[in-house]
Every structure is written in C-alpha cells, then in structure tokens.
Design goal:
It is built from five helices and seven strands; from the N terminus they run βαβββααβαββα. Strands 2-3-4-5-1-6-7 form a seven-stranded antiparallel β-sheet, sandwiched between helices. It has a single domain, classed as TATA-Binding Protein (2-Layer Sandwich), CATH 3.30.310. Helix 4 packs across helix 5. It is α+β, with helices and mostly antiparallel strands.
C-alpha cells in the first residue's frame, strides 16, 4: 500500500470531529466501520494517502518509537515548543504526486495549530511554516507539483 509514512505531531489536542472535518474537506473516502487501522483515504487519480489519528496508547507507542532517536524527539519538542499531544499517521502510495496530498492535509493542521511533520524515510522534519510554504507552491514532500507528477 504505502512506500512512505509521515507522522504529523502537534502540541495541540486534535479532536476527532475536527480531524474528520479536515478529511471531509479533502473529499476523503471515510471507512464505514471501525475495523482495520486507517480511518480514511484521500485519492486523486492513482495517488492515494491513508490516514490514522493516533490517540491514547497508539500515540504513546508512536512516541516510544523514538527511544533510540532521542535527538529527533528533542527536535520535535523544540519545534512544537512542548510535548506532542496529538499525532496523525499519513501513508502515501508510491505514485508521483501522492505526497502533494500529504502536504495539503498537513497544511489544514498547520493553519490552526503548532505542528511538525516527520518523514520516516530519511527522518526529515517539516515545521508548520515549511508545510504551508510547500502547499502555497503546490509542491509535495517529494518535490513534485501536479504539473510535474505524471499519473501515467
């Protein structure tokens, strides 16, 4: 399904209703039931991103993943100016342009709350200001724009 996973961390508490509202803004296909891991999928042609709100134990487990990377967790705390209180996993498929959808969703959070996006591959961190700049330039985390990402 996915070749790249991103985790959006925020020092604000993101409520499920607001999260679901962001997904609806992006015309996400919401899961009709609670089975399975992902809450929704956003698609454009062959580009897909799956979403999962990490709450409670899931958030604690995600933060525990950084035990062997304390410098990354310290940088996340520094960017957020506090402890992550919410996280959303975004898993993009490998179609060129899928990571534009990731940026578009992350920008919805970045417009409202302090946040940082962690890209698992390469351990890159994108503060809210960078996410908004990428969105405004129409770019994804992989450098593609809709014009340069060819679905064929």
């Amino acid at each position: 399904m996915s070749n790249d996973v991103f985790i959006l961390f925020s020092s604000a508490q993101i409520e499920r209703d607001e999260y679901n509202g962001w997904l609806r803004q992006m015309n996400a296909a919401m899961k009709p039931n609670i089975s399975g891991i992902y809450d929704a999928r956003v698609s454009k042609d062959t580009r897909h991103v799956w979403f999962f709100l990490l709450e409670g134990d899931a958030l604690a487990m995600e933060l525990a993943e950084f035990e062997d990377q304390p410098e990354v967790l310290a940088e996340i705390h520094k960017i957020l100016a506090g402890e992550p209180r919410a996280a959303i996993e975004l898993a993009a498929n490998n179609a060129e342009g899928s990571k534009i959808l990731v940026v578009q969703f992350a920008a919805l959070c970045a417009e409202r709350y302090p946040c940082v996006v962690y890209q698992a591959a390469g351990q890159a961190l994108y503060p809210a200001e960078e996410v908004l700049q990428l969105r405004d330039e129409g770019m994804g985390f992989d450098g593609y724009t809709w014009e340069t990402a060819n679905p064929n």
